[in-house]
Design brief:
Bound molecules: adenosine-5'-triphosphate
Structural class: alpha+beta
Distance between the termini: 19 Å
Largest sheet: 10 strands, mixed
Radius of gyration: 27 Å
Helix content: 10-25%
Order of helices and strands: EHEEEHEHHEHEHEEHEEEEHEEEEEEEE
Strand content: 25-35%
Length: 447
């Protein structure tokens, strides 16, 4: 038996499809062929700021053991599934498949790490594939090979989560999803904080169901395969479930926000952490978005907290010049209308500037607030007429409404990779050593 890693990306479009669904079909195909899974299927989210992504920039990797002579059949069936279920008509859909035998080389791990927070080159991907004998197959412009290789390279060795994805039957695609909202609320209560982002706390909106025409009926994210399965068993739906699979993923881990940069180092499409001091006060622009600037010793950059970011926007609104903060987010390239900007996902307020206000002194005789007699001429009481030529304005510190700490965008506007508040303290540091018995709906196949 030989270890095989199968990476897949860029099969779907806004209109239809989902790479994880092809992954779920392939799980069934591979089990039928007698392959043994050595990990849960991996759902790897890549840089959420890439210009070519359709939705969440997700790629998948299936890691198996099989007889070496089965590999041509595995490539055949994977190609067939891509051909059957990719939206080739969409200009932005350029599927890629990658097949690696044996262990994952260090260089591929590095490539995968870089693909989480910056733009990696197609030519680099092809060079790596050649160097390590990775078979790659690209459709149309072949860009999906980048994601397919990055998915193989990311073995989720550090923090990770799980997502149970349930899929719809073909006949229901495009129709409203029939799911009992009450059962989602109950599931959320029974399983949180070990499942997350089921419901948006600010609006009550159900977040486990996507809204497009893709085949996902719902996805439940959580800390263990057991808890996402328990949660899935609590959900009531009034339509047929085609199949379900538990993916292991870097979702909800902040894997894209690991590196700190100086302002002069920022480049479009990067995911960054930048420390600086607020240099321009927040301004509320059309759409109720909040814009302000920060400065470090290398330059100044605008930062934005958009309207749906909820508590993050509310905190950004209260910043003052001089506050020391760290912003976490995506670098949006400059355009004719605006300079480069960091679209914030999180903000750590490190130190608040003192906000001082100056007031006239009160009269020593009658307690009334005095009036100035002119610059450096002291103050006079308007009530009793008492004059004090030596009096000066008094400085008072205003209590800030904002508190130091971490502010995160609301669940409804979180990226797939954003670590939600409830996951702080639940991070994992090593991969699982075994798999549960039933991690997909068709495991009976191998029994
Ligand atoms: P999903 O809908 O499954 O969440 P997506 O559809 O939003 O994901 P893709 O359709 O996979 O995203 O498109 C992303 C494209 O960008 C793919 O072709 C992928 O290979 C490529 N890509 C991903 N990450 C990077 C990166 N860091 N640098 C360059 N190209 C990337």
């Amino acid at each position: 038996m030989i270890k095989v890693h199968l990476g897949l990306d860029d099969t779907d479009s806004m209109r239809t499809g989902c790479t994880t669904y092809i992954g779920a079909l392939l799980v069934e195909d591979l089990l039928k062929m007698g392959c043994k899974f050595i990990d849960y299927p991996n759902l790897i989210r890549l840089n959420p700021n890439t210009p070519w992504k359709t939705r969440g920039n997700g790629a998948i990797c299936l890691r198996i053991r099989c007889e070496e002579n089965k590999i041509p059949d595995i490539i055949d069936i994977s190609t067939k599934r891509i051909e059957q279920f990719s939206d080739f008509e969409s200009e932005n859909t350029n599927p890629g498949l990658a097949v690696l035998r044996g262990n994952v080389p260090k260089e591929l791990e590095k490539f995968a790490q870089k693909a989480l927070w910056s733009i990696v080159k197609y030519s680099t991907a092809l060079k790596l594939a050649k160097r390590f004998n990775i078979e790659v197959l690209g459709f149309k412009n072949g860009r999906g090979i980048i994601g397919a290789l990055a998915a193989i390279g990311n073995q989720l060795k550090e923090d990770y989560t799980y997502e149970l994805l349930a899929y719809r039957i073909k006949e229901n695609l495009g129709k409203p999803r029939k799911i009992d909202k009450k059962s989602v609320i109950e599931m959320d209560k029974a399983t949180k904080p070990f499942t997350f982002n089921n419901i948006d706390p600010e609006t009550g909106r159900i977040l486990i169901t996507p809204r497009g025409a893709d085949p996902v009926l719902y996805g439940i994210r959580g800390e263990s395969p057991e808890v996402v399965k328990k949660a899935h068993e609590m959900i009531k739906v009034f339509e047929e479930v085609d199949r379900w699979v538990i993916y292991r993923s870097n979702q909800g881990t902040d894997a894209h926000l690991r590196f700190r940069f100086k302002i002069s180092e920022l480049k479009p499409f990067m995911q960054v952490i930048v420390r600086g001091v607020v240099s321009k006060s927040p301004e509320i622009i059309v759409g109720r978005h909040v814009i302000f600037s920060i400065r470090d010793e290398t330059g100044e950059v605008n930062c934005a907290a958009y309207e749906p970011t909820g508590e993050l926007r509310n905190a950004a609104k209260l910043l003052e010049v001089g506050d020391e903060i760290e912003v976490y987010g995506a670098v949006r390239p400059p355009s004719n209308e605006h300079p480069m900007i960091i679209n914030m996902e999180k903000m750590q307020i490190i130190k608040l500037a003192k906000k001082i206000t100056y007031m006239n002194p009160v009269c020593m005789k009658c307690g009334k607030r005095m009036k100035s007699m002119g610059s450096n001429k002291g103050f006079k009481c308007p009530k009793c007429g008492f004059k004090n030529p030596k009096a000066t304005k008094l400085a008072f510190e205003i209590q800030r409404k904002l508190k130091p700490g971490l502010y995160i965008t609301s669940p409804r506007s979180q990226r797939h990779l954003t670590k939600p508040k409830c996951r702080y303290g639940l991070e994992k540091s090593s991969p699982p050593t075994s798999m549960i018995d039933y991690w997909c709906s068709f495991l009976h196949i191998r029994r």
